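Morning. Coffee machine broken again, so started the prediction first thing and wrote up yesterday's gels while waiting. Chain of 422 residues, entered below exactly as on the submission form.
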Amino acid sequence: MSRAADLLAQPVERPGAKDHAALFAADAARVGILDHTGPSLGGAQLVAGYLASILSRSYPVDLIGEWKEFGPERIAAAFSLDLSRVRERRFDAASTGFGIPGHSGFFRQIGRSRELTKPYDLFIYCGQGAPPFCHARHGLVYCHFPIEASPAIEVGQTASWRRRNRLDRWMRGGAYQLAWQARMKGYDIVLANSSFTADWIERRWGVSAEIVYPPVDLTIPSAAKEDLIVSIGRFDGMKGRKGHLAQVEAFRKFLAATRAPWRLCLIGSCYGEEDRSYLALVQEAARDLPVEFAVNAERAAMCSQLAKAKIFWHTAGLYDDEQDKPYKAEHFGIATVEAMRAGCVPVVIASGGQREIIREGLDGFLCADLPGLIETTKAVANNEALLAELAEQARRRSRIFSGDEFERRMREIVERCLGGAR
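Came back before lunch.
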């Protein structure tokens, strides 16, 4: 048996976890949830963990991943989740893809998909790649963004493909498309975290997706508001997608235009050498500024900062054309909703799913570029009455993206899946 298969066959029982099998009837549907988004700890792990937590009250649930520097315990602590009834299942090389027809290793990935999905009555893929072939009785996709696309896009636009003759392309293209359709047929329902993502799923995968917004469920302590701007986002060294260096630059220019003693707090997870190198770069850029860093902070510490902050910044998608590089946009914006729940006024780049959260001028601001973000922040920071009014509207708006609504939708969808024939 391969190392991957061996790991799949041996779920990890976490210390202190309740006996998994004894909690449910022998005929209870078994659920496997794959967190397939890479090594960072962020909103994707919140969704996978939240889903595992709520479903584990009714079904035996495995939470599957290839976490290196954190696992279910850290996910539970970071997002205040009860995962005591959830069994951890380590899946070697889960951070790699499951193969696109026409790419090398495709047939090997078919076998790996079977090893991963076959044990379950319901397999749930939470990720941003092409989902594995599903051999469970039922399958469900919760897509954060379709970074990997169908063969017509992934293979059809490569130089090697264009070098093939027309007959070769026609035969291979037809076979690849049939394989793609067979893959997607294994899933009863595809879900998207936003309308933005759903639109790109249709364009890149050729399937329709239902929208289920991620859960935002946090307790904000009572605290007096301070002259504090908060930003939340992973210190992602490989991509720098959240724009921390741009925020430091913007804060420097903002401070030069205001007399008040404002501070900036950058909150985010950081795992791996590349991320730590990137974090050091951001810290060096902010060395002479009143900038605080809350790295790998516990949930309570993040909520404490949000409770004190007046303004929230988010700059994902700042420098990229959304149509050309949609994967660099903000696919939804969980951190934005969390900040709004705490009464922070969001001043963000108008990117992706942020437009579905913020109503311009009513409960926050959507900016086209960095100068716009700076000017808007200056205008809002100097108007206490406007800040108070926007903060209250932001709190109200945030409540439509609740954990209760996420649970209601997901339970209905899971029951729909398990009640249907395949």
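The two ends are 30 Å apart (CA to CA). Going to sketch it on the whiteboard this afternoon.
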